[in-house]
Amino acid sequence: MSDADEVLTPLTILRVGDVLDTYSADEGTVVLVRGTTGHRVVRMSPLGEAVRAAIGPGRTLAELEVELVSRLGEPPAGGLSYLVRSAVLALVDEGVIVAGQGPKGDNSGVIRP
Amino acid sequence: MSATVPREGMLHVEALGATIAIELPDCRLTAAVERAWSACSTVPVEKCPVATAPELAPDAGEDGLAAALQSLTQVVTRTAILARAGELMMFHASALSDQRSGATIAMVAPGGTGKTTLVRTLGPGRGYVTDETVGVASDGSISTYCKPLSVRRPDTGQPKDEVAPSDLGLLPPQVQPWLAGIVLLRRDREAGETVVVESVDVLDSLVLLAPETSSLASFERPLHRLADLVQSVGGLRRVRYHDAADVEPVVREVLGRAR
Asked: B200 φ, ψ to 5°?
């Protein structure tokens, strides 16, 4: 279980991480992320890209689920919460999004787990 | 920067298009450094970046000298990369060029995975561009870095010996090199297995190449810059091989390309 997994609750605020560039082609999208130990390029899954787009300036995990349903509809096989949580955890691990308990209006970049 | 008079204890080299002053505080290093860096030697210029060679212990022997030379190479490389950050797209790669056309293949690979061996094996008769860092300008021209080759010792492997290209039968490019192709090396085939050449789509190219770049984030829209460069040479190919000689057909094909 990662650190993010432990703190991820429906009220956890999600924001886009320090993404320096985004490149899209017919095959999908990659992003360049600034990390603590250097930069990395992450290839986005379709759901991951939808999550990143839906987060906007910041949403809670619960709000994100609602937003994704409005954009994509319910997943055919159900399990929305599990799918979104898995995608969010993967994106947090890669630094594409950051998770914390701060107020949504706080854009200082300081994460308070 | 303007030319200046050479002074004792200083050697000037051209690395990735930048002039670097190598400061030699210990005269015991001078002859070895001058020989190893002979292919890069250039005229002094004022206010160029300085790379200082490490000091030798009073009782330093052959290994101590070799370790200092190896360390100096790393310092010069870092200094040159810093000097060209944001100007050149720089890859951790070896490169060879065609001596008539300047067509150049960049062979990208992490350290210790065969870049120098490839250059030593396939380089004679071609232009030795580098065995370490390839710097590509926005127009596709390449700034050479004809550094000494870091040759692993057959017994212990360390310290590596810094060997002048000419001592290995390698010559600097005779005409301006330009990027004709880029491959990613993976030495994961068994002895006797044939070389495998795989096309890599542009997105995976970015994922695979980014860790082998230096100062990528210094560019505006770095991923677009890298993608444009990869696409300008027909895309990235991954070359899976065992013996350096197996890569010869790939090198020959790329060096035969016209601009």
From this structure: -120, 130
ipTM: 0.86
Query: Hey, is the C-beta of B228 within 8 angstroms of any chain A C-beta?
Result: no
Strand order from edge to edge, sheet including A19-25: A19-25, A28-35, A38-44
What number of residues does chain A have? Answer: 113
Q: Do B210 and A41 touch (CB under 8 A)?
A: yes
Q: Closest to B217 (Cβ–Cβ): which among A27, A31, A34? A: A34
Residue A50 near residue A96 (C-beta atoms within 8 A): no
In angstroms, rounded to a whole number, what is the distance separating the alpha carbons of residues B216 and B86? 8
Condensed to tens digits (0 to 9), the pLDDT of residues B26-62 reads: 999 999 999 999 999 999 998 999 999 999 999 999 8
Do residues B77 and B117 share a domain? no
Provide the residue range defining the domain that includes B104: 89-255
Which residue, of B84, B109, B143, is where some domain finishes?
B84
Residue B68 covered by a domain: yes
Location of structure tokens 């677009």: B224
Q: For the whole model, what pTM was predicted?
A: 0.89
CB B126 within 8 A of CB B99: yes
Total count of domains within chain B: 2
Q: B4 in a domain, yes or no?
A: no
Across the interface, whether the CB atoms of A32 and B201 are under 8 A apart is answered no
CB A4 within 8 A of CB A66: no
